[in-house]
TrEMBL record:
Top-level taxon: Eukaryota
Keywords of this entry: Immunity, Innate immunity, Membrane, Transmembrane, Transmembrane helix
Gene3D superfamilies: Peptidoglycan recognition protein-like
TM stretches of this protein: 29-50
Peptidoglycan recognition protein family domain location: 82-225
Family recorded in the similarity comment: Belongs to the N-acetylmuramoyl-L-alanine amidase 2 family.
One GO term of the biological process aspect: innate immune response
Annotated GO MF terms: N-acetylmuramoyl-L-alanine amidase activity; zinc ion binding
Name of the protein described by the UniProt record: Peptidoglycan-recognition protein SC2-like
Pfam families assigned to the protein according to its UniProt record, in alphabetical order: Amidase_2
Domain N-acetylmuramoyl-L-alanine amidase positions: 93-231
Gene: LOC113212161
CDD domains: PGRP
Length: 261
């Protein structure tokens, strides 16, 4: 008995001679195999694409997460997750003449720094120093960096003028608010989740220190003056906060823009 299989081409040449129902049946079988194969291929491509787009989403923790305070010398922990980089640690220039802020205040004003974002402590220190140079330089001639605090894309808070000094961030509001500069530009791009979490942690700390009232309100600068800051995208996040204050300036309550001393 011949047990070896015939050559494939031999079988294929016989196909046209097969009765039509057999050919149709074989064609259907080939179609089914091809169909299953193509479906599997497409599914694979789609799964890969979904995984790829997931990889583009922002990760939920900052690069230094895990051991929150390793690499964080000169960073004062103010909660289990957050810490404050002192002025010394970011090599701040000494401030000039400043006024004392009467605390507690009931308002926090959020600004964007309108700079590139920063993702590492080194980059955030560099950004903070440049902002101070700009605020104290010819253009503004303020006595110090304008913000009371800055929040980096590295998830750390950088000490500006601190809780007890009047800032230069939002004219006419400086002497009755804490000004937080979120490092970056947020008209289209969202702040990192850990950046927002650091800001919330900072403000909770402010309440516990008696620098902010427990029912303090948070506003974006664009709610009190004619400015894009802190950017549409960041405003969207602020509006979702429990402490967000639904207030918008009118022409009669509007004074001159960004500024201070
Ligand atoms: C900057 O401010 C200081 C202190 O107010 C003042 O003495 C100085 O003249 C100012 N410099 C410029 C260039 O405006
Ligand atoms: C803030 O400054 C303005 C203008 O100098 C003044 O009218 C207001 O009383 C001050 N507010 C506080 C809380 O010091
Ligand atoms: C904010 O206030 C305005 C008018 O005062 C109101 O129309 C709007 O619905 C409020 N928005 C929220 C989110 O409460």
């Amino acid at each position: 008995m011949e047990s070896r299989l015939p050559h494939l081409t031999y079988c294929v040449t016989l196909l046209p001679a097969a009765p039509a129902p057999c050919r149709h049946w074989l064609a259907a079988l080939v179609g089914l195999v091809l169909g299953v194969g193509i479906t599997a291929l497409l599914a694979g491509v789609i799964i890969l694409a979904i995984q790829r787009s997931g990889a583009d989403e922002q990760p939920q923790t900052p690069p230094t997460a895990g051991d929150p305070f390793s690499e964080r010398s000169n960073c004062l922990p103010f909660s289990e997750e957050h810490c404050l980089v002192s002025r010394d640690a970011w090599h701040a220039a000494p401030s000039g003449r400043v006024a004392t802020l009467a605390t507690p205040v009931d308002t926090v004003i959020v600004q964007q720094t309108t700079t590139h974002t920063c993702a590492t402590r080194e980059q955030c220190i560099s950004a903070t120093r440049k902002i101070q140079e700009f605020h104290m330089g010819k253009e503004n001639n303020w006595s110090d960096i304008g913000y009371n605090f800055l929040v980096g894309g590295d998830g750390l808070v950088y000490s500006g003028r601190g809780w007890d000094i009047v800032g230069a961030h939002t004219k006419t509001w400086n002497n009755k608010s804490i000004g937080v500069g979120v490092i970056g530009s947020f008209s289209e791009v969202a702040a990192f989740p850990w950046q927002l979490s650091a800001m919330k942690g900072l403000l909770a700390w402010g309440v516990s220190k008696g620098k902010l009232t427990a029912d303090y309100g948070v506003m974006g600068a664009s709610q009190v003056q004619d400015t894009d800051s802190p950017g549409q995208r960041l405003m969207q996040d602020l509006r979702a906060w429990k402490h967000w204050r639904n207030y918008t300036y009118t022409t009669s309550t509007l004074h001159t823009a960004h500024g201070g001393t």
